[in-house]
Amino acid sequence: MYETNDPELKEKYKALKEAGLLDNILEKADVPEEKEAAAADPDDYVVFEHVRKVYHVGEVDIEALADATFSVSKGELAIVVGESGAGKTTLLNILGGMDTLTSGRVLLDGREISSLNTRELTKYRRYDIGFVFQFYNLVQNLTALENVSLATQICSDPLDPAETLKAVGLGDRMYNFPGQLSGGEQQRVAIARALAKNPKLLLCDEPTGALDYNTGKQILQLLQDQAHKSGATVIIITHNKAITPMGDRVISVRSGRVQDVKINPHPVPVSEIEW
Amino acid sequence: MLRKSTFREIRTSLARYLAIFAIVALGVGFFSGLKDCKESMVSTARKYLDRTNFYDYQILSSYGADDDSVALAESWDEVKAAEGSIQIDVMARSGDGDSRALKCISLPDKINTLNVVEGRLPEASNECVVDSYSITDAGFRVGDFIEITDENDKDKLDEFRETRFEIVGLVNTPIYLDYQRGSTDIGNGSLDTFFFIDKDAFDVDYYTNLYIKLDGDQQALSEEHEDYLKAKEDSMKDLAEAVTAGRRETAQEEAQKELDEKKQEYEDNLAKYKREKANAENKLNKAENKINAGEKKIKKTRKQLNAAITEANAGIEQANAAIADLKTKKAQAEGGIEEAKAAKEQAKAAHEGGMISDDEYAAAIAQADATISGLEGNLNDINNGISQAEAGLKQAQEGLAQAEAGLKELDKQKNKLDSSEKKLKKEERKADNEFDKAKRELDDAKDKLDEAQEKIDDMEIGNSFALSRKENMGYSSFDSNSSIVSNISKIFPLFFFLIAALVCMTTMTRMVDEQRTQIGVLKALGYSNSQIVGKYMFYSGSGAFLGAVLGFFVGCKVFPTVIWNAYTMMYDFSHSVDYIINWKLGLIVLAVSLLCSMGATWVSIAADFKVPPAELIRPKTPPAGRRILLERIRPLWNRISFLYKVSIRNIFRDKKRFLMMVIGVSGCTALLIAGIGIRATISKIADYQFDEISLYDITVMFSKNMTEDRQKDFMEEMKDAGVTGDSVRFLHRGEVTVIIGDKTTDITCVATEAEGFDQFIDLHTGDQHLDYPGPGEAIIVKKTNHDYGIGVGDEITLRDDYREMKVKIVGVADNYVYDSIYISSDTYRDGFGMEPDIKAAYIDFEEGTAEDVIRNASADAAGYEYTAAAQTNIDVRENVNKMMKSLNSIVYVVILSAALLAFIVLYNLTNINITERIREIATIKVLGFYQLEVSQYVFRENLFLTAVAAIVGIPMGDGLLKFVIDNIVLSMIYFEPRHGPYDIPISVAMTFVFAFLVNIAMQKRLRDVSMTESLKAVE
């Protein structure tokens, strides 16, 4: 049974039920609940509030994140930049729903994800997050199309995998296996896989880390286009400071703290960046 | 440094290391454990047999044995020791318990000595020790009493000096190695248990059994010993005959002595008879003589008297006549006188008258006077004569009276004599009768003596048997059982070992693949190939070594122990099995384990040495995805849901893993099928035989050819047991030599008439009924078919002594216990040119007849005078069943091991699978797959592979079962591989259960896969 504590919703629910419309709505109610909470401030689409993460390694406590606070607006391309060990991976893990935090709060689209349990976190990853890995992480014995389908299979409102692949420029390589694709093409497949889920947030972990310069640039362009042309919210995590000009917002991380958040009103197209 | 890295490697990949260790341990354990089983069992039995000095040969003679026999045996060639034993079956009971048939045995001294389990050996003749195994009821415990009951025959009771024995101990004896106590001709026909008493408690002067221990020092239960026993068989038979001959002579002498005594007695009696008879006759004769003499005298006297009477009468007559005569003469004389007087007167007158002269007168007077005087003298005389005659008359009359009185007296005497004669006659008759009777008795005695003498003279040669220990039921059943164990251990462990090697190989291949980069780095750092190889060799080698060592020692300990435990149900003599360490086997196993693991390592690693280190350092290009065949069948492929497609493609992509998995898991299925199949095949064999084939209930073997009269007698005897005409089949049953090409074998030949035989033995092949063979034809059984490769249409030669005949095989009948060949009586008659002797009978009871009834009938049949042996199929069935039940333990061991194997294989492969795909798994987790979906994503493949493997495993299991069963060669028993109706489904289901269990066990491992793995660089 559909249940909520929101009195307003309860009333709506009652009214709908009386109107006999409930069934219709309930069918659609399969849609993740966070949609109803979509009343958040678009500027605070992604919010990190004093996030702290401590790992216990034996007797030693390692503070991966000491106090991270930042926010990202909807439709922005944000770049989290930092040296190795600055805590950006931890940040990514927490934001990606792959890890929990010790204290603080994390919100996505107004929903607090820092309080979710394992199952809810899985759902969160399933429906809200598109992930692009440094090493693509494609399933080797699935074709490009199938790799995308692998993700869309489990989504509630996916894009068409073939269309998505076409959109990332791989319309003619859909039936190739990862082994038959170049690194850049593989990363495009990975991006397509993330996009096709129609996620609230596209998280990219060093997306160019395993790619050569030119290919890397193409990939970054693709990601920038996703934000600027398709309105997706994209967060790229990188150690490469050179690419920061392409972002709408640059969040510098150092020693587990957000050192600096820079808003970039005029992001540079990727093609103009050189490193 | 490298060594440090190696140890660290072991620590970090402990699961993998343990997998190698475990699979090698299991493989080696199973292999060496089962291989070791027979040795352990045999060694245990051997020790026991040696300790108790188990006999080599047992000499049985219909004349029994005595101390002379023992002495003879001891002097025999190659006989180390001989001992006589008294064994008598009696009905006995303890306390208020039921009386049972017990074997009472004299305490052995040096052969077949007893193993005291509890208490002590008897020290007095009223003490006994009992079987420790078969005492299950209260009342056969130490401290109780065994009492030989009155229901035994008097003769039997006479054989005991004591009839009440206190149980002072529990023992076991090598004569009864297993639980079978054998049959007897008392009670219900089967022995319950045995007890040992002192020789002095018996009152017999012979031994029933003579046990022989030979010089040969070959190990018991070894082939060498068997050969040795065989080689000694003739010598032992000779000894048996010599013993019998000796005993016969003694018996003859004893009997003769006894007979001679009786003969003497007879002679004495005869003499006495004669003497007495003569005496009696004498006496009678005397009496008769006396009577006769009396009679004679009477006769004579009578004659005399009669003569006297006659004489007297004549005298009287004469006297009367004389008197009359005299009276006449007197008258005449008186007349003369008168005349003379007249004349004188006349003369006077005349004279006077004178007529006449005086002279003339005177002369006339003178003349007249003279006449008168003369006449007067005459008259005197006459008067004298009369008186004399009268006196004579009187005398004669007196004499007559006297004689008549005498006659009367005589008559009296005669009467007396007559009566005494009558008496005598009577006495004589009586004496005659008595003597006749005595005579007859004596004659009878004489006949009997003659007969006895004849018997002694023609005393039977007697039967002699020399039975080797192989004919001891317990010993031979042990031999068979240990052979089955060793036969089963032939193929199963090998299979196990192969799978272990395979697992080892995959694991190491996988490891080397994973560590490609590290190998490259090491190479780049300048480590030599051999150093690098050494690391991996050490890794796999040490795992395998430890596994092999542990497996070997544990296997050698656990398997025999487990199997022995099952066998203690049958064998009581030792509760623990010998822990045999076969170092040779151990070394071989260790070498093979090391070869497999390190060989696999070498093969995997060698490929990497060919590539330059630089390339090794770079991640290995992942194998390109490929379409599988199934995808080309579009209509089918399109129907499959996406995630299944992923699984299917995954399965077929990695052929090595596929093969490994299929081989490993199908091996497990096959082992299960075979294991369960062995059970179905073996455990039900008695049911198959006695429910489907041998429908009769009792086999009776006779010592004499059963002529029609004897058959009638037998039937008469069996009447009370409820056995009627058509439930008994008398038939010929004897060994014939079957000659097949250049091979020969002895098989029991059954010759009978076709009609009604189905009631006793149902000859069939599968569902196909077989008609009883006609003239010149024969039906053989599957075992013969299997062992000698002869079948329908083949011609074989049967030989009976020196006669031979050829028969054509027209059928191969299903048969599991015993082997036989069936021909018709006509075939026998025509082929061998003689009548088949009828020395066997099958007795069939209605289905569902109570066991007691059958047992009683069997005991009755055993009681018939010409019965050599009677056996119920109930007993055979029980024996076979019990033997087969023990085998179950092996099957359970196999099943358990198969399960373990399946588990290890599946676990290892799944583990490898997960390790290999950890990145993929992390990725799909990041993609938001639920835990269940992740599991399904991985385990779907497992289950699919399990399904494929299970299907492959079915024919493999079938083949394995056939192979194993084929290898179990037992004399008398034929196994036909059979699957129970649910064996295959159960095996497959069990395989799936194992797969599920592994999957469940692996869940945690999957859950623990960190998503951050997905972020890591590709190694």
Q: What does this molecule look like?
A:
The complex is a heterodimer of chains A (275) and B (1019). With 275 residues, chain A is α/β, with parallel strands linked by helices. Chain A has a domain at 74-99 and 117-272: Rossmann fold (3-Layer(aba) Sandwich). Chain A is 31% helix and 24% strand. Chain A contains eight helices and ten strands. Chain A has helices at 7-18, 22-28, 88-95, 118-128, 144-152, 161-167, 183-196, 213-228, and strands at residues 46-57, 60-72, 77-82, 103-108, 111-112, 129-132, 201-205, 234-238, 249-254, 257-263. In chain A, strand 1 (46-57) and strand 2 form a beta hairpin. Chain A is globular, with a radius of gyration of 20 Å. The N and C termini of chain A lie far apart (56 Å). The model of chain A is unreliable at 24-39 (pLDDT under 50). Chain B has 25 helices and 22 strands. With 1019 residues, chain B is α+β, with helices and mostly antiparallel strands. In chain B, helix 10 runs antiparallel to helix 11. In chain B, the strands form four sheets. Chain B has a six-stranded mixed β-barrel with strand order 3-4-9-6-8-7. Chain B folds into five domains: 8-41 and 502-618, no CATH class; 48-237, no CATH class; 251-457, Helix Hairpins (Orthogonal Bundle), CATH 1.10.287; 629-687 and 874-1019, no CATH class; 698-844, no CATH class. The model of chain B has no long low-confidence stretch (mean pLDDT 82). The two termini of chain B are 22 Å apart. The chains are: A alpha/beta (275), B alpha+beta (1019). The interface between A and B is medium-sized, with 37 and 33 residues.
Taken together, the total number of domains of chain B comes to 5
Backbone CA Rg of chain B: 59 Å
Biggest interface, residues from each chain = A-B, 37 and 33 residues
Shape of chain A: globular
Number of helices of chain B: 25
CATH architecture of the domain at 74-99 and 117-272 in chain A: 3-Layer(aba) Sandwich
Query: Strand percentage of chain B, roughly?
Result: 5-15%
Helical coverage of chain A, percent range: 25-40%
Would you count the extended β strands of chain B for me? 22
**Kindly state the mean pLDDT of chain A as a whole number?**
81
Instruction: State the CATH class of the domain at 74-99 and 117-272 in chain A.
Output: Alpha Beta
Q: Which residues of chain B sit in consecutive blocks of at least 5 with pLDDT less than 50?
A: none
Query: What is the CATH class designation of the largest domain in chain B?
Result: Mainly Alpha
Number of continuous helical runs of chain A: 8
CA-atom Rg of chain A in angstroms: 20 Å
As a percent range, the share of strand residues of chain A is 15-25%
State the end-to-end distance of chain A. 56 Å
Largest sheet of chain A: 6 strands, mixed
Number of strands of chain A: 10
Say what oligomer this is.
heterodimer
CATH superfamily of the domain at 74-99 and 117-272 in chain A: P-loop containing nucleotide triphosphate hydrolases
